[in-house]
Structures are given as C-alpha cells and as structure tokens.
Amino acid sequence: NAGVTQTPKFRVLKTGQSMTLLCAQDMNHEYMYWYRQDPGMGLRLIHYSVGEGTTAKGEVPDGYNVSRLKKQNFLLGLESAAPSQTSVYFCASRPTGKGSNQPQHFGDGTRLSIL
Amino acid sequence: GQQLNQSPQSMFIQEGEDVSMNCTSSSIFNTWLWYKQDPGEGPVLLIALYKAGELTSNGRLTAQFGITRKDSFLNISASIPSDVGIYFCAGPSPFTSGTYKYIFGTGTRLKVLA
Predict the structure, then answer these.
(1) Which of residues 40-69 of B touch A (CB under 8 A)?
(2) Cα–Cα distance, A101 to A104 (Å, whole number)
C-alpha cells in the first residue's frame, strides 16, 4: 500500500552540489507534480507532468529540472544547489478524471538543507 | 503566484471545542479540496467538494462548497488532540486553460490543548 514514495527523506548539501530527488507512485496515475513548502507560504508548484515523456513548468521552476521517463517515476534535479532552495519538497500524483478534478495524493516529503 | 486565502492562520482551542475555518478566492472554483498535514508528513485528503452548495461530512469533519463558488468552509466538531496539524484548502487553478494545476491555501495551523 505504498502510494507515493519519495527518496531520500532528508539530505544536506553544500552550495553548488547537485542532486536528484526521486518520486515513485504505484497507482498508475497520469499526472505528477513537484512542490516546495516553505514556512507561511503553503505549497508552490515547481514542475509537473501530464504523462510519460512530458513535463511543464509551474510557478517556481528556476534552478530545477525534471524528467518523466517512466510513468511511475518523476525526478526532480538540482544542478547547482543554492541556499534559497532549502525547503521541504513534496511529490504528488493524481489520476485523470472524467468530468471532475481528481484530488492529488502526496508523498511524505524530502527535507533538503543547502549550506 | 496565486494562492487561496485561509482564515484563521492559526488557532489554539480546548479539547472538545468545535472549530471553523474558511478559504476564499477572488476567482470562481469548480472544485474545493481540503487536506490535513500532520507534522513531518505530506498532506492527506480529507474532503472533496464538486458542486456549489454541497455539504459533505467525513466523521467529525464537515465541509461546504460556498454558493458563490468563491469560498469553502471546514468545520471540526468536538476536537481531539490528534486534530492538531495544518489544514489546507486547494482547488484547480482558474488561471490556466487546463485543470492540471492546483493552487493551495496558506494553511490554518490548529493546536488542541488537552
């Protein structure tokens, strides 16, 4: 009963280092999302994907790249980490809906600190 | 970016009290979602609303889709300590042509005193 799984759960990086966050879902959902959550700002969309092989920018995409090579996986990359990217990152997925907007299912987050 | 306005931002209540919170937007929504986030975890869906005026319950939780379609309300009856957390409203962004994007409120942080 995994749902949405994010790895790693915690990571500390130095400025300029790169890393990739992995999101995996086992619900056969078409849509996947990456958000960041900062104190007092709710959830902000970084990138999203509406299907395998497709990606699109959200409201705060700068400094991040994504890939969706397989339907079940959505990867978030930081090429050169900056302290401003210190945040909690959440992945979400949802199915397509026929005539309705299906809710998103979230992972438990990755807590990332950039020193 | 666009966000929904939630009120109150935070609240302390005594165990057993009822709780009310709301979410407002300047734009019309056709779906309202309410999530709860426990400390150290991701948001979990509580209630989904799809029609104006709709009133839906999930245990001690009741949510309503405002008739103006610009607001939604969440009530918790007889609060217990495990109700502590952050409650978010969300809905499909009215500012995009498709329904792919969702926008989230800034959250109501609830603390329950035993």
Answers:
(1) 40-45, 48, 50
(2) 9
